[in-house]
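Regression check, EPU case 428:
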Amino acid sequence: MMNTTSYSSDAFLIEGGATLKGRVRVSGAKNASLPIIFSTILTKETCVIEDVPDLLDVKNACELIHLLGAEGDRLNGRVLIDPSGIDRYETPESIVKKMRASVLSMGPLLARFGRARVALPGGCSIGARPIDQHLKFFVSAGAQVLVKDGYVNIEVERKKPAEFEFELVTVTGTENALLYLSGVEGRSILKNIALEPEVIDLVEVLRKMGASIEIEGRTAVVEGSEELKGFHHRVIPDRIEAGTLMVASLLTGGEVELENVLPEHLGAVIGKLEEAGARVERLGADRLRVVKVGELKPLEIITEEYPGFPTDMQAQFMVMLSVTEGRSMIYESIFENRFQHVYELKKMGANIEVRGRSAHIEGVRELTGAEVISTDLRASASLVLAGLVARGTTVIRDIHHLDRGYERLEKKLRELGASVERLPSLVS
Ligand code: EPU
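Current build output:
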């Protein structure tokens, strides 16, 4: 069904030193698009999703929906899905391996069929990433869960409302539970939920489909329905892409204007940028400009659940702090192994010491170009930023990690004046 774009493990060649200037449009949010694509499993009516970014993860999510039996089309950011033909409830390992977010098919498949069989995602480069909270939720909702041969098999005899409190705040765990309960008649209660803007965007969609969801603090009261409707929805702007471009502007001493950005989703990021010495000018409800005023200042950052400082912005800020005079500290409280970019940044001359979950950064005068390797999505973004500010040439291999989450980043950076070139599949 969906039109495809080809992705490969290309490399980036970046000539450092450009000052970024101009205007750039932020794409729709990847992490909002994915659960919304999976929500279509809950209905038999056609759904239209606008401003969906053209990314590898999105392509994989569309492919999964297609494998389950849906029809659809993807063109210019508009995804149309006709889920009436969905007649399978198994999400194979081949897809889950490519995209962890496929676990989000569990909730809607269980709601639609009373059963789901979904390959178990393994750990990944940023941590063990268990899904015990997702499974505990399903058990609390009366489902039987059997993990066997690398698959999670879930079955529920009679769907009934649930009351569940998450032991920790989990984004996709909350989304899976909301997706399931929206397809279940009756009043359910979820406590200690994640409140990330992407979760709230999914809630908007589930409401459009006919579920009633009330949120107060970290508690959601859900009244689902067996007859959910199709919907038309535009996904929120990608706050992590916006944050990455804002750091790029400040880091290069430039003046970048962002369009399609919601400053209210970026409170903690804007706060830290201002503390570091940026002036963030609000130009309208969804436009802002980042300007550097004076020398950059060191920071102390602790990653936290929303509305705290996002773990997905930690690596990008680390690059900025690497070239900021003084001592900075970043404490990563969400994922236990999210400092892999440190090793690569050190190749470029950064002075960073990792002790457990904290990274201590001593600012250096400059970074120098080197050959580095991407290890995960946000680590890749940080290496791109490092390349932009470094003296000389940087080659970043395995850029497919970046392609999972940033739409045409090199094109956007080039339009702002950066020298970034894509080298197709560099063989090592
Ligand atoms: N956790 C558990 N048990 C669970 C679920 C989570 O122990 O059942 C732990 C995780 O191991 C982690 C913490 O709880 O230490 C938070 O994990 P969470 O479940 O919130 O992460 P996620 O839902 O798997 C989403 C985003 C990530 C983002 C995190 C945190 C999507 C598709 N992914 O992951 O995005 O970093 O929330 O905000 O929404 C990215 O885009 O690069 C990315 C990794």
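Comparison notes: The radius of gyration is 21 Å. The first strand starts at residue 11 and ends at 15. No diff flagged against the previous build.
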